[in-house]
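New to this. Please check this fold:
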Amino acid sequence: MRSVLETKGLSKCYGSNWALQDCTLQIPDGRVVGLVGPNGAGKTTLLHLIMGLLDPSAGSIKVLGYSPQVHPREVLARVGFVAQSRPLYKNLTVEQHLHLVAGLNHHWDNARATERLAHYDIPLKRKIGSLSGGQQAQVSLALALAKCPQILLLDEPLSNLDPLARQDFLRSMLVAASEEHFTVLFSSHVVAELGRFCDYIILLSKGHVQLSGDVDALLAGHERLTGSTKEDTNLENDPAVVSLNRRERETTMIVQKEANINRLGWEGHPVTLEELILAYMAHPTTILNAPVLEMEMEDSRQ
C-alpha cells in the first residue's frame, strides 16, 4: 500500500526543548488517521512540519513523495489544512475569502466550495465576524476542500464547537473523504470521538511516537485481563503490560496479546480503542512495536 506520508527520525527542537523527537511514521493512502495525545505532545508541531511551516531540526519527511522544504509548492498544492485557530479575516465576506484563496491555488474548484457553503446555508455576502463558530468551521473546511487536496490536515478542528456543530463538521468531512478519496490526518486530544471514525491511530507522548497502526490490528493485538488480586510484583515490570489497576479484590490489566504471561486465573476481554489509548497515555514510557502489528494485519488481508 502506498504511503502518503513518511518520516524518519523526524525531530523539532525549540531552544533546548524537543517538541518532537525521533518520529518515524508511514501513513497509508486513503485512511482517516487520528493523531492523538495530551496537550504539548507534539501534534501541532508535526502538522506544521508536514505543511512546511517549520523546518525539522533532524530527520527527514516526505509528503506524497515531496520534501516540504525542497518542494514547498508541490506540497502546498496537494495538502489542505484547517488550523485550530481558523485564521479567517473577520472583516472580509465569505465570497472575498473564496476569491482570495482561489488566486493562490492552481486546482481550485469554486463550484465545490459554493455548493458546500450553500448546503449549510452560509451566505456568501456575510462577513466572517458575523458567522457562528460552527459556520466559520464549515467555511474553513470548504476552503481546504476546494483545493482538491490529496491529504487533509485538521488541527483540533472541533474545539469551541457545540455538539451539533461538531456533528455537522465530522459528517461533512467524512462524506467528502469518502467521495473524493483523500487521506485525513485528524488531530485531537479528545479520545472518545476518534473511535467513531478513525481507522488508523498515531499516539504522541512527550514528542515521541508511542503507538501507531491500523485500529483493527491494534485492538486485535491487545486484551483486557481481569482476575482476583494477587501479589505478583513481576507484572509491574513486564513491558507487555500496558496498564495495571489493582483493587482490593480484583485486578484489571491491559496487555499485549503476545505477552508471555501466565493467564491461569485471568479472564480475557476485548478492549475498546478509548481504553487502549488511555492506557498508553497513562504510561508514556510504554512503546509498542507497531510495525509487527502492521505486518500481521496486512497478512490477514491477503
